[in-house]
């Protein structure tokens, strides 16, 4: 197990290249095992109802069908629409709340800022199920159960502390000279924030937006407690009802699952570096 | 929940243009306090209204005797610690605590071991290394309902691919999700699968931070690859490992979606944890027991905070 073999450019041709090919092969093998459930989801989504219970199961969708996807188009579009709105709403709310807070904590450094950062860290550790219970009690009284804004608010609690931490970390890397220059030109703090800080914080904005969207899109806990009886329900509930109601139509369930995975897939293809950055954010100090 | 596992403090080099500069803290500007709190006002109000208040409501729920009617009207009588006493005396308590601990620690052990092995594997350079590593993120990014329903079907007793594969090597079909003996194992397997990417990515970046010279020196001294890993790499990785494990604990303790979707904590409570039990009490039946549900939830918060504070302590101490 040569941990940093890659840093030695000594393996040229011959045995070295064979070993490297072997490693690529091994890597492909591990990845194939890891992604098998994903493949299986796609495979089942194309499987005909009549083949669904065949033994052994069909490994390839050779004799495939689009029934599952037709069912998605017929039944799941409203759910997808709701999820999209909830996701975008959560992104907007998260950005509006966390970007100014990150700026203040990173650059204006008020007394008590440390305590606030600590509270945000703690806030992230509260289990969602418990938050959902508290929200349920409050929403019931206020009459905002089963509403889209209510769900957006609840979903934002997953992303806001993360957003503040990311913005704080990113913005403390912005040179103070940039801010001073703007101040000397007579810009107010707000003006400086909007026209100097925000434009250079693009990477942080993208990272926070991506995760806020993904978490809101994937949320099940808040959806099932706070929006379980509404007209506008998100796709996670669409799938959940499917599983509960027609146990037999697994191609439709898996087709919905495939569609529900699209945002995650797009994210990985288009914004991979932001994803890895978000995962490791702060878990490792650099 | 290994899923929303992201959090905490300083950004890695890749997010920050010039995180290095962050190390030099700027002086506080005069009069900045008011301006700063003006920027912070929205988040403070938000935290009070949408974190503190729901948690207060939850605490309040756990200290009152609620019925459906009094829940709506909000006039339930104060009952002190009765709900907590009831929860402790409940026959579900012991098993739920045990399942919570087994689920959490077994999940973490496997996620970490597999994640670390893969991280070491991926530090070697070979073609497609970066691409394959990126693909490993997929399970972590998928919505939990997607992963959970896929595993549900894969583990189906009659038509699941897992039993079909076992059949080839002449092992009898297992009732993964419907037998009390196997339900907890099944949800652990699915949870390990979801958690591997997080461990891989964090440990990988930890490995990257270890200077190559350290390994070169050890190699020159004649250490074998295996020795280099256990005597050099692993000790140097300890701070990152501790952080990964503790965060894993915090997030695995609160896993709810996965278990609920796959087994609903069943059969007969065989896979119920504090998270699912709490939900079960409050929302899972026609006759909700909000008081005990909230009490179980608060116990879960205490457990999560214990590991959470330990995490923060260790993270602050890491140089």
Report on this structure:
The complex is a heterodimer of chains A (286) and B (319). Chain A is mainly α. Chain A is built from 14 helices and no strands. In chain A, α3 runs parallel beside α6 (148-171), α7 (176-184) packs across α8 and α9 (202-218) packs across α14. Chain A is globular and about 75 Å long. Residues 1-12 and 282-286 of chain A have low confidence and may be disordered. Chain B has 319 residues and is mainly α. Chain B has 15 helices and no strands. Chain B has helices spanning 32-62, 68-73, 82-89, 93-122, 129-135, 138-141, 144-154, 161-168, 183-208, 212-220, 225-236, 238-253, 257-262, 274-283, 290-317. Chain B is globular, with a radius of gyration of 24 Å. The chains are: A mainly alpha (286), B mainly alpha (319).
Largest sheet of chain B: none
Helix/strand class of chain B: mainly alpha
Which chains have the largest interface? A-B, 131 and 136 residues
What is the average per-residue confidence, as pLDDT of chain A, rounded to a whole number? 85
* Classification by helices and strands of chain A: mainly alpha
The gross shape of chain A turns out to be: globular
State mean pLDDT of chain B (0 to 100 scale).
83
DSSP strand content of chain B: under 5%
Distance between the termini of chain A: 25 Å
For the secondary structure, the number of strands of chain B is: 0
List the quaternary state of the chains: heterodimer
Low-pLDDT stretches of chain A? 1-12, 282-286
Based on CA atoms alone, the radius of gyration of chain A comes out at 24 Å
